[in-house]
């Protein structure tokens, strides 16, 4: 009961007590009355004005939707009914975004996460609480200590809307009061991407849809977010660029979202738990078990998987008791529906191997359906659009108690037709890129890291770029009609490949960025092999297109079927095993990790930033074959062929004015990936997932010296050479702009695109992480092999010699080379900054960088004194020398 109600009740009780004390009792218990007065009726107790109104009065005229928590609706008013027995009983609370604004990470069809929640009542106040599942005690005796140590979180709260129902023993709460606040934390994401203070506007928000049945209650809130004003632009450009206000809404001060809240009953019988093994890649539900203080590592990792049980446990092949059903959204264009369906059902091959027939089923949402498959009981494939978007994601919601997957909503953007030809996602050639992250806001909590990995799958965006590059090259090389059946068949294959990948995520599988390196170059050129086995041993990799060089035979271009790793990962997660045999059988399955076709490396192995920069050159995105270095060289050759053909392509009436820019941009994206992959060889380590006492061999091994040096040579002679990027002046001056657009861009600049590409290489090779590995790799080698190891001195010397080769030859330094040298100097300046780079662990890197900087200063002085150089080259050499001299003299970095 609220404090005001308690105070009122106390005053009434006190007044009654005082009246009773002043009136002496009549004999024999008769009522006391003045002499001669008639007997008066007993006084009614006063009504508490703060008490909730009767249940029946509140719902008079309302319509009921029976369900887990019944929904009552009358006009614009909505209540949910909470039975007495439902308080303090956990259920699954999930948040999805059904509609959004279509830019900067704020897109439709998003799953934002789930919490184990329960209703709690304190007097006439109701709370929706998120229970703390991060810390648990398998020993029940330890639970009280955990409850004292770790707090739950409040999701939302409010007063009861009615008195308890006399028969149903339930109470009403006003949905508007509970669910029209910013539960998902969207205001945080809006502030992050726009730097403007948006807030929910309750007066213009409402509950637009409700649904309820025995398993779930779903509430869809139409939320209005607004900011009072858009600030005026600064008079002086700020040192850090300020993001623009929203571009996709008519008025940037106002926007609407449809937020879907699902309150779902948990399975009465929790699913059986299967513990994860680090040699395979499964998403997990993880927690710290603090009930056993004898374990040094209290972490427990449960495999995320659907509940699959055989109808006939004795049959070798049986249908499941409950299949995994995916609903195809009615917004999926009809021409792609068969390919989407084929991508989903492809996974049945893996389940048949472990005894399940038709484990996965597909249903099509009718085109005239008036229900939304965004609720938590429909696994779905949803099609959405955006102004700056090109990706697909395959997240899922799980029972936090066991890791059982209960719901999944794959969302894919419209990048396979028109979308694949757009420039919105390109970040080279002067086109602005955008944040394609998820609008997770503040909702995901401790599981944000794993949810981020699930949600940040940009496979479809990269596949769209690959598709654009492939279509351009094949059209120019072979005369393929971009709108003909061959191009359409390729686009359909990309749809199927992407759906296989995303469905894999919703079945609990992580990325596997080593799978493509387990197919040989000879197998990739064998059409019969690729048609039967695909071009990679997993659809969970980011697989490049198997494009032949000019004159080579053509095999399968894309991945068309599951790989060996996919079958293995499904077997570990879903094979039905008697409880007494499970540990031994799972150990036997995981022990196959040493088979070459089952190599596994996840996002951290590939590189996610910071110390996890991806130091194993076998774990990459968009490489192909067992020699990633050789594939990077093929990428450069294919790009150069495309450039030659684009420059020879005649203009035609009706051409998009940005057609050639788009072709060149897609090629530079290929090279950007290749540059990242090949740079990993230098100072790289081969990482193996060794399990102590189970697997043998080294956990880490330096990349072979010959491969490191070959990678260095390719970087120096290929990626850092101006000769690799030849474009005709008459072509460059002919590339027009789209004058219908306000932001029409600038003339095409190849040097800017090359500088961005080369900057990626320099960032990698001159990073503290690479320096550390080069310095320490000798510790991983036997003493006899240390003498010939690639050293930090060799890497820095090779880079500097290649970048400033004109100092020895006396050649002119062109615009592209001057940009490269300035980019090198910028990074050298960061290395020489004692304040940030003088720590003991990088002391050797600092001294080596200073040594080479001193050598470079001497060479610059000598080169600047040579006669015959142009004024541009002499000015550049003088400025470079001045900057370098000041860097060597300075204690701190000069800006």
TrEMBL record:
Residues 485-808 form the EcxA zinc-binding domain. Residues 110-311 form the DUF5117 domain. Residues 22-52 are annotated as: Disordered. Pfam families: DUF4953, DUF5117, DUF5118. Residues 22-42 have a biased composition (Low complexity). Residues 1-21 form the signal peptide. Gene3D superfamilies: Collagenase (Catalytic Domain). Keywords: Hydrolase, Metalloprotease, Protease, Signal. Residues 52-98 form the DUF5118 domain. Residues 43-52 have a biased composition (Pro residues). One of its GO terms (molecular function) is metallopeptidase activity. This is Zinc-dependent metalloprotease.
